[in-house]
Amino acid sequence: LLLPAVQQAREAARRTQCKNNLKQLGLAMHNYLDTHRVMPLCLNATSKPISVHAYLLPFLDQSPLYQQIDFNNSWNAPTNAAALGARLTVFLCPSDGSAALPTGWAGTNYRANQGSWLLYGVPSTDPSNPNYNVPASNGVFIPNASLSIADVRDGTTNTAAFSEHPLGDFNNSFSSATDTFRPGTYPNTLDEAVAQCNAIDPSNLSFQGVSNVGAPWLQSYHSTTQYFHISGPNTRSCMFPPGRISTTAKSHHTGGVHVGMCDGSVRFISNSIDIQTWRAMGSRQGNEPISDF
Fold first, then answer.
1. Which tens digit of pLDDT belongs to each residue from 203-213?
2. Residues 6 or more apart from 250 whose CB is under 8 A from it?
3. pLDDT < 70 stretches in the chain
4. How far apart are the C-alpha atoms of 83 and 64, rounded to whole Å?
5. Does a structural domain hold residue 222?
């Protein structure tokens, strides 16, 4: 009789610590804003994708580590080896346990909100490109732009900044719930993406996409440090051609996920949240009506 109660108490403590980690990230984001007047970059035009997490380090009591990062080179440059393997508890949900990460890599359970649209990157200016005139990312941390808090026109209490995702198994020889799958289909709408993602047989390894999930935290990529508000919490993640992504928020907490809002608060969001409300939370300026969540 005692064992279930002890397990529940331990998970409650882990869940509280996870929530506190997201609060720390939210506070770091606001301190970054106070200093720089804009949000940190998510991806930059030089194709050297250093994560939002790296830019927040000075505001997480990690200035010495921040000073070791070579922002003029890629995340996997030899000059960034020390940061690449730096394990930070503020980036890790204690409910996730320990993953078998590649040597020299440290991971994160926390992701930056890219928004509630499919395109990963920026729309093409070439009319012959399938991503020509496709809507751009509408989240808080977007490619090639640093937004101000004034750009969050839907209101900071209604707009997500961060959420969570378990670390992957880093093994492409089998499929697991943390993987990002590759259906090979071409969705044009959010609902098409969700339906096509859910329709695959995950045990069929031909649909295997990415198992290297959540590491390294230094890399800005959809499978490492970003997520989207397309499919609801704790649903399957998928990647589609040409450059369309639905990486979901997930957790090992029963019933939902933590979401750090742009006002610095942290909400626990149920798996059963209305999908339109979830998508509205991911958009910074959609003017969507948001019901209680």
1. 899 998 899 99
2. 164, 165, 166, 177, 178, 233, 234, 235, 237, 257
3. 1-3, 44-47, 98
4. 10
5. yes
Which pLDDT value is given to residue 3?
Answer: 65
Asked if residue 206 is part of any domain, the answer here is: yes
What the block records as the tokens of 206 is 């031909």
How many structural domains is the chain composed of?
Answer: 1
The pLDDT of residue 134? 80
The token pair that represents 163 in the structure block: 């959420």
CA 236, 155, 165: angle at the middle one, nearest 5? 25
Q: Count other C-beta atoms under 10 Å from residue 278's C-beta.
A: 23
Rounded to two decimals, the pTM is: 0.94
Is 6 part of a structural domain of the chain?
yes
Asked whether residue 289 is domain-assigned, the answer is no
User: How far apart (Å, rounded) are the C-alpha atoms in residues 21 and 41?
Assistant: 21
Nearest-angstrom CA–CA distance, 280 and 293: 11
